[in-house]
Task: inverse folding
């Protein structure tokens, strides 16, 4: 295609202009460690504080400028020690954490045990309005620094955190949580320099961390320039000179810019262009599994969906959805039909079990029709799938799911999409329990643990249990699994809980979402981690 | 507040109302025009304020216009197209078999084939069937919203322009406030509370946010038309306000309103899609061109046909109404006789 | 004249208060903005309450409005949810959008009026039909599609422009986005001019001017055009506000961080401070534009006078 060849030429021109390197050679000829790449970005929704960032765009930056106790392996997703020398426990409730020597922030300040404890206390304190405060909810004393009922907080610091010496601190949890150390790679647990507390506004305008990159300049709403931090002590130092994150308000524009050679990396290829990606980019396109699953949740507070036989209706709906066809046609295989309630990125050892859903997720129109009839038919004769219209392109797949259900049930109006104008309104309706039918639910994992895919979503009254599904057996199994100190056994128990979820069809699993990215021919060694964020420090620029 | 000063009254009551004869003093004033009209006046006595004159004068401007229209081929063609659209809206099943809601994803984005002359869209729905069935919603929304906006806007704007003074100030400032409401905000606020899935809330919303523009245009043209000699003359002769507005000002001020309204018709049909896109407009299972156009837009590189046909239908509708508007305007313009 | 302008300026005060109050209430009616801040999960109630307090959402609406207006008069337009002062957002968004609007208006005036005059003088000619055809295409194909196609063709295929506009957003970069933005309005301006010209070209004063032996060019520009411009000027006046606040689609396609985008974001996130702040400035723009249009009436048609 003409566009593609042209794009190559333009990209080379841009490369020449930027760093005067030779162009025309293959992309794999090693990298110039001084070259800077440009990448698409979205304006973060919240101030860039680690415990206040709950979406991917802000997370991208935190991932580059911070290193925590643990780091998730970009390929396997496994939690590996980063700043942690060791994390010890004898009872899965009291942990002693030792911090490695030799780490500093990019402003020269040493990273100590206090850097962590101060940061965590800040994140857990109600008065700081940190939206990810609940991450510290397992630590003892959280109910004092962050009272659930909104009453005045009685403590500024978590009683469960104690600094022992410069390198050591202890954590006491309020309950047993055997996999707690593995959660510590989440950005919310990052250490913070003193400047964060002494000059907060100054820090926010140009955050300082301890990661492989340091922020060079930050123009809110348009661009952030990150440069390699030369003194970075870790073993995952940046292999390029830096990254310029450019704010795009539409991923399609970013994609077009990539084609024209104005941009090196797009980590969100627009759905409408997926069909052209092979033509436009050839093999400079990634489609990597990520820890994201899309489901349809049900309002269990609504009698219609919580009576005897409802489970059959829900299972019937699940069997009326042709996942295979939708992921192929609408998403061009950037989604994989789901066969359980976790994600393939967990790996089999981590708890992913292909086919756990069994028949209940297999497309079978005849069986679907039968099940729904047996269950008493669709409540009111019609299901409305509610979604928000302002973010993501949910309309396409909701319409496709509805068409699939309609075809299976031989009824043109059995299922219709029900858009809601804004995300806030959508969330508001969920919070106020106003849903009357299935609605869109998605989950992006915080850390690659099976616990993270089950407990927050399906445990009675858990923070993201939007459908308010509640099942004693499931809750007991989750409790049991959390207390289990042997990982393999814990995973097995979690899977038993998942089977309970399946038998009740507490939510219909739809598909696992992949991360997709396209890049220019200047780049090589581009990867997406299990959180669908590019592994910037490993990218080579020629 | 525009308080246009009447121009110096002309020495005689020589100006004439436009329907009187071949040469009407509709010029923007000036001594030369005056000369012409005075010359004519000598031969023909001016019409009295009661409107009676010689028998053939009883024919009003409007009936003249109607007679003209019937002979105008542009009017006939556009009328036939509009009749066809009405027919399709009422009985879509007459020319399209099958249901517009029957979609098979396996056929997504396929091109033209027997049974589906326009091919299939991204969801595997039959584009031909959907285009035919979408006519009802789209034509209803477009025509009614345009009528509502044009009537409401031109009445308010016309009155503001005609009476001037305090009326103008109050109406114009209200217009300003309505101008300030962003469509997205208005839609999300006013339409998200509506649960009805009929076209009425959408039409009501368009009228509510659309009238200020026509109102301004109408006000501007009335202010201009008001300056014309024949209007001043009619006033001097003691014509009532309603008579002046209906007989002298409206026919001369209506052209810009018609132009804007006929184009707005198309934009309202598209606006309906914007509202649907925002999740506050018409919801499935309603079928409309707007919804289909907006759904097909991102796939322009792969399946342009899914965009082409509903867009083409929209273009045809707009063309018909633009032609109709042109014909009506010409018929109302005495200078073209 | 002077007194008239002063009176008009004074009238801005009630409009200003009315519009801000209306917008304030509308954003408020949309519901609780906090629910959308915590991503795909529920905000814990304590944090939600704390956030409400911080943004002043726990107080009654009238009190919120009074506080807000009080702040506005001291130049404080509040902060957006991402912690950025709204004045900062305005300072970055308005200059870009104003440049974009200027480009669009110039297109409307130059291309729109030229085409309108040509088609008006030659009604029924092939040029007239051709322009009508283009008009139909512009009306029935969404801006999104025309923008996208131009971007692909000019930006990628032929490489004449950069597909996206840099954060400097210079006039040169804004030519194509400005054309896309102006496209629908161009249709209006062309048709309005065409009709006015067609209507006035048979006027006595035109005939007189021709009879006087004035050159055709002078007749068209001096006599015909000047008298035909009032509806066109009115339309462009109403369009300025729409172009500035409603360029959402164009700004998205070309990645322009302007007013349309900020306003759209603010509305979707139900950020009262951003929305009311931006709309407030837009209202002022409307008011000034309308005043200018009314004054232009008097310039174009000397018989219209303001006391």
Result:
């Amino acid at each position: 295609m003409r566009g593609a060849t042209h794009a190559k030429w333009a990209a080379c021109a841009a490369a020449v202009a930027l760093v005067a390197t030779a162009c025309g050679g293959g992309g794999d000829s090693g990298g110039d460690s001084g070259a800077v790449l440009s990448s698409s970005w979205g304006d973060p929704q919240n101030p860039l504080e680690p415990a206040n960032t709950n979406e991917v765009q802000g997370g991208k930056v935190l991932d580059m400028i911070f290193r925590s106790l643990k780091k998730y392996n970009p390929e396997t997703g496994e939690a590996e020690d980063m700043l942690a020398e060791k994390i010890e426990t004898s009872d899965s409730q009291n942990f002693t954490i030792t911090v490695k020597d030799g780490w500093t922030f990019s402003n020269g300040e040493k990273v100590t045990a206090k850097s962590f404890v101060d940061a965590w206390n800040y994140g857990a304190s109600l008065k700081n309005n940190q939206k990810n405060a609940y991450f510290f909810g397992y630590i003892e004393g959280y109910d004092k620094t962050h009272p659930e009922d909104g009453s005045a907080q009685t403590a500024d610091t978590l009683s469960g955190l104690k600094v022992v010496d410069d390198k050591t601190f202890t954590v006491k949890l309020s309950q047993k949580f055997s996999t707690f150390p593995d959660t510590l790679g989440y950005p919310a647990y990052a250490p913070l320099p003193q400047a964060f507390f002494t000059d907060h506004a100054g820090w926010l305008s140009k955050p300082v961390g301890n990661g492989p990159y340091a922020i060079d300049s930050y123009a809110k709403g348009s661009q952030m320039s990150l440069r390699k931090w030369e003194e970075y002590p870790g073993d995952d130092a940046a292999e390029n000179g830096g990254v310029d994150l450019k704010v795009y308000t539409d991923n399609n524009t970013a994609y077009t810019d990539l084609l024209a050679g104005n941009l090196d990396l797009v980590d969100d290829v627009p759905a409408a262009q997926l069909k052209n990606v092979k033509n436009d980019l050839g093999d400079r396109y990634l489609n990597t599994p990520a820890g994201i699953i899309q489901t349809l949740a049900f309002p269990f507070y609504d009698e219609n969906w919580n009576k005897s036989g409802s489970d059959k209706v829900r299972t019937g709906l699940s069997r009326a959805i042709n996942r295979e066809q939708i992921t192929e046609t609408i998403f061009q295989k950037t989604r994989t039909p789901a066969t359980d309630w976790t994600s393939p990125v967990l790996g089999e050892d981590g708890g992913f079990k292909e086919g756990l859903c069994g028949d209940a997720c297999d497309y079978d129109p005849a069986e679907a029709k039968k099940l729904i009839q047996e269950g008493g038919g669709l409540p009111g004769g019609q299901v409305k799938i509610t979604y928000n219209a302002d973010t993501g392109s949910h309309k396409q797949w909701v319409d496709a799911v509805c068409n699939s259900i309609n075809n299976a049930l031989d009824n043109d109006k059995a299922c219709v999409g029900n858009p809601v104008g804004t995300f806030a309104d959508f969330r508001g309706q969920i919070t106020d329990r106003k849903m009357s039918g299935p609605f869109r639910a998605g989950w992006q994992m915080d850390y690659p643990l099976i616990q993270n895919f089950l407990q927050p979503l399906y445990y009675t009254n858990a923070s993201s249990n939007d459908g308010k599904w509640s099942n004693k057996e499931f809750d007991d199994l989750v409790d049991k699994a959390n207390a289990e100190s042997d990982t393999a056994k814990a995973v097995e128990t979690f899977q038993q809980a998942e089977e309970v979820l399946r038998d009740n069809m507490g939510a219909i699993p739809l598909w696992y979402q992949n991360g997709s990215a396209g890049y220019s021919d200047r780049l090589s060694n581009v990867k997406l981690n299990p959180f669908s964020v590019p592994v910037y420090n490993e990218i080579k620029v020629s | 507040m525009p308080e246009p000063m009447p121009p110096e009254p002309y020495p005689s009551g020589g100006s004439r109302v436009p329907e009187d004869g071949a040469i009407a003093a509709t010029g923007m004033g000036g001594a030369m025009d005056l000369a012409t009209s005075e010359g004519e006046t000598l031969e023909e006595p001016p019409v009295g304020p009661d409107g009676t004159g010689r028998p053939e004068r009883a024919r009003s401007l409007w009936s003249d216009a109607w007679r003209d229209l019937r002979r105008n081929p542009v009017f006939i063609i556009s009328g036939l197209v509009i009749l066809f659209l009405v027919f399709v809206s009422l009985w879509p099943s007459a020319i399209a078999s099958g249901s517009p809601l029957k979609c098979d994803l396996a056929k997504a984005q396929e091109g033209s084939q027997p049974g589906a002359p326009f091919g299939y869209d991204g969801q595997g729905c039959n584009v031909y069937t959907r285009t035919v069935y979408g006519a009802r919603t789209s034509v209803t929304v477009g025509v009614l919203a345009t009528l509502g906006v044009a009537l409401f806007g031109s009445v308010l704007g016309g009155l503001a322009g005609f009476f001037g003074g305090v009326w103008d100030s109050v109406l114009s400032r209200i217009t300003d406030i309505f101008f300030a409401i962003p469509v997205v905000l208005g839609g999300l606020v006013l339409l998200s509370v509506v649960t009805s899935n009929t076209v009425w809330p959408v039409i009501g919303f368009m009228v509510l946010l659309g009238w200020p523009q026509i109102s301004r245009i109408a006000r501007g043209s009335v202010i201009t038309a008001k300056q014309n000699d024949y209007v001043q003359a009619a006033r001097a002769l003691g014509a009532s306000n309603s008579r002046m507005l209906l007989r002298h000002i409206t026919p001369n001020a209506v052209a810009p309103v018609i132009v804007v309204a006929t184009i707005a018709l198309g934009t309202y049909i598209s606006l309906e899609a914007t509202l649907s896109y925002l999740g506050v407009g018409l919801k499935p299972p309603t079928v409309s061109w707007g919804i289909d156009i907006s759904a097909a837009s991102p796939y322009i590189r792969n399946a342009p046909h899914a965009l082409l046909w509903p867009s083409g239908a929209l273009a045809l509708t707009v063309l018909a109404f633009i032609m109709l508007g042109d014909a009506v305007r010409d018929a109302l313009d005495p200078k073209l006789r | 004249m002077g007194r008239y302008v002063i009176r008009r300026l004074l009238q801005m005060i009630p409009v200003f208060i009315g519009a801000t109050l209306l917008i304030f209430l509308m954003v408020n009616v949309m519901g609780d903005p906090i629910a959308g801040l915590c991503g795909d999960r529920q905000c814990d109630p304590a944090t939600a309450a704390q956030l409400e307090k911080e943004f002043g959402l726990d107080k009654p609406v009238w009190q919120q409005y009074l506080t807000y207006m009080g702040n506005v008069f001291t130049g404080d337009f509040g902060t957006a949810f991402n912690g950025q002062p709204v004045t900062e957002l305005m300072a970055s968004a308005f200059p870009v959008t104003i440049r974009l609007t200027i480009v669009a208006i110039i297109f409307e005036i130059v291309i729109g009026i030229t085409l309108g005059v040509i088609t008006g003088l030659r009604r029924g000619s092939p040029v007239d039909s051709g322009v009508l055809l283009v008009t139909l295409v512009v009306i029935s194909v969404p801006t999104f599609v025309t923008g996208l196609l131009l971007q692909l063709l000019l930006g990628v295929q032929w490489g004449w422009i950069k597909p996206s506009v840099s954060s400097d957003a210079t006039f040169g970069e804004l030519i194509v986005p400005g054309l896309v933005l102006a496209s629908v309005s161009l249709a209006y301006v062309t048709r309005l001019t065409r009709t006015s010209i067609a209507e006035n070209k048979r006027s006595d004063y035109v005939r007189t001017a021709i009879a006087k032996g004035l050159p055709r060019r002078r007749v068209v520009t001096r006599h015909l055009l000047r008298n035909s411009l009032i509806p066109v000027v009115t339309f462009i006046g109403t369009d300025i506000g729409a172009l500035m606040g409603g360029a959402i689609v164009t700004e998205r396609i070309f990645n322009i961080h302007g007013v349309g985008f900020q306003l759209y974001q603010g509305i979707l996130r139900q950020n009262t401070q951003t929305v009311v702040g931006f709309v407030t400035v837009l209202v002022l723009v409307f008011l000034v534009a309308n005043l200018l249009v009314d004054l232009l009436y008097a310039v174009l048609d000397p018989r219209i006078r303001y006391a």
Summary: The two ends of chain A are 24 Å apart (CA to CA). Confidence is low (pLDDT under 50) at residues 1-30 of chain A. Residues 2-19 of chain A form the longest helix (18 residues).
